[in-house]
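User: Some background: our group keeps a shared notebook of sequences we're curious about, and every so often someone picks one and asks for a predicted structure to add to the entry. Today it's my turn. The entry only has the sequence so far, pasted here. Could you supply the structure so I can complete it?
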Amino acid sequence: MKQGSRATFYYGGQAVLEGVMMRGRRTMAVAVRAPSGQIVVKTEPLPKRLYQSPIARVPFLRGMLMLWDTLGLGMKALMFSADVALAEQDAQLSRPAQWTTVVLALAFAIGLFFVLPLVIVGAFDHLLESSTLSNLIEGVVRLGLLVGYVGLIGRVQEIGRVYAYHGAEHKTINAHERGVPLVPEEVARQSITHVRCGTNFLLLVVAISVLVFALFGRPDMVTRIASRVVLIPVIAAIAYEVIRLGAARYGNPLVRLIMQPGLALQRLTTREPSLDQIEVGIAAFKAVLAADEEREVAPRPAGVRDSA
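Assistant: Of course. Here's the predicted structure to add to the notebook entry:
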C-alpha cells in the first residue's frame, strides 16, 4: 500500500498489446514495446472533472471511475498500443474505427455476461418455483461464462502475451507498494497476483449481481434484461467499495478468505512475464510517478523513447 503525502493512494493499471497502462493521481501512462524493440511511452493527464472532483472521494459514486478506468482509459491505452504495433506498417486505426471497436466490445461484454445468462435460464425458468433459485442459477451461469471465457482466450498466443504483461503490471505495483527497487530482476520476485486486480473486480460483480438482481424478483423477461443493463453501474460501485475494503483490511484473516476466489481466478488472467515485459511495466509506472511528482525518478534507460 502506497502512503501518499495527503492520503493513501492506490495505483492501478491494465495490460495492453505488448505493453502496460498505469494510472496515477493525475496522470495515466502507457508503455509499449514497439516492433523495433524500443519502449514507446505516452503520458496523458487524467480528466480533472473526474479524478479531482468531489465525486472521486464519495463512496459508491467513486466506483463509477472504476468503470472509466476499465473502459475509457483501458480502451484508449489499447488503441495506442495497436497504433504502435501498426506504426512500422504505415497503418493506424482511424478515430471512427476506434470508437466502433469500443462500442462493439461493450455490446459483446454486456450481451455475453449479462444478457446471455438470463436467456439461458429463461429456457427452463418456468420449471423453477423460486425466484431466488432462478437468480442464483443465473449467477452460476454468468460465473461459468466468465471463467470459461478468460480461460479459453488465454490459449490464443497473442492474448497469452497480454496476460504476461498483466503479470508484469501486478509485479511492478507490488514492488512499489513493498518498497522494492524498480529494476526488472527485483520486480520479477514479486507476486503475480494483486488484491485490487480487475479480475477480482469482475468476480465480485458476478457475486454481487446475484444479490442485487434477487431484490427484483422475477419480472417479465424484457424488464429483467433491462434491469441487468441499467444496474451495471450500481453493481460496479458496490464491487469497487468491496475491493477498497479488501485492500485496506487485507491483513484480516476473514477479508483474506473472501478475496481468495478472486486471487485464484487471476491465475487464469496472468502469466509469468519475462524481464523484457517487466521492463515495460516499470517504464509505464515510472512515467506515472514522474508526472505525479511522487518522488524523484531515475533517468529512463537507453532504448526508451517518448511517443510524439
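Suggested note for the entry: Residues 114 and 223 are 13 Å apart (CA to CA). The two ends are 33 Å apart (CA to CA).
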